[in-house]
Amino acid sequence: MSDLTDYARNLLARAICARAPGLPGNVFAALGTGGSASAGLTGEPVGNGYARQRVTFTGTGAQRNAEAIRFVFSAAAGTLSHVALYDAASGGNPLLVSPLNAAVTMTGAGTVTLAAESLVVNPS
Known about the structure:
By secondary structure, the protein is mostly beta strands. Helix content is 9%, strand content 45%.
């Protein structure tokens, strides 16, 4: 994952200076049809069984998702091209956004799975 959002950049700057608000207690992965560092994720699915998924990370430098992340859909959701991390299961603030390695088109019910260690948050 490559692009810290503007919100995340500001959050980290405040954290380094010991200023509130604190860092998020949980992180949730989301899918969408697009996104950028300034806009965050765009086109996040609504309904169709979709929900953001809580993610845990592991690592000493670069952080990687510890387990596979599964998004379940009960109906078509279109073409999903981006993944993002948020500080809440719904609403909340976007932290990172990045294109998927390959876009996924959901034409009906099914599951999108992001493999364990496929989301990498690199400190550089």
